[in-house]
């Protein structure tokens, strides 16, 4: 019954309906619950420790060294909306796919709520409340809003990662709109440049000037690999979330923008319809997955990988449009991803992604 979120009263009702003997008394039921809870927590901690050791084995590092690892993070709530009393945050290794740590946040304690009904003697109630809090059995461990639970969970998990596994969760895969990153990006200590420019308005003239300066190029080069003086957490986007964002932006584009004829971009055959958006979103994700270069370290290698992604996407679009035989549009598809030429009426647009020579 506990797995269903139901207690002794629900079990007693079921027993009554089935004409079965009632369950054990409430005190005995709670005693059994506590025993099961303690045993479950013990096994869980063992499994989490084993998961940490498997990450070390995968990375071929010994137990004494503090490792910089890549993880994914997400939070969830006990119910939809912004009124949930319970939330949980989970960290999963990007290398092994195993859970490394978790935290449960609660805005309420059921035992405290039940005892509040008997506040006729304030002194005894306060004495009980202090003892209850000191025992570690009070479930309430969070006082903020429900939406902010996710970033608080991230702060707790990142702040104890070194003590728990001797890991620094240095690469963080999370939702694009997650506010958790802002809570943990500097938790392991960062350099002066990161401290200064991360907190600066990204649209300010000073920040834009820094982006174009040699100092930024030096900063980028030093941070492309591990830096002993800076342990900044890097935010990485899940391909699935990037893919969804593209679909969301295309939907917005189809409803708001108009073409040269004054008619909307989407909403009719031959234009940006919802099925076409779904296809483009899918092909965009596939192009990224096909062209990811996990060994790329230098800026040039990363740029080349991005170009391959772009080219794969354009080739896919070209093939898709060509198959549709839309009007007088025609597409010439080259055998490699180096060149894609688009001919639209009398206009000629050439895109050279990988430095290939002109094909005409």
UniProtKB/TrEMBL annotation:
Transmembrane domains' residue ranges: none
Domain called Mutator-like transposase: residue spans: 3-184, 230-309
One Pfam family in the UniProt entry: Mutator
PANTHER family the record matches: CCHC-TYPE DOMAIN-CONTAINING PROTEIN, KERATIN, ULTRA HIGH-SULFUR MATRIX PROTEIN-LIKE
Name of the protein this chain belongs to: Mutator-like transposase domain-containing protein
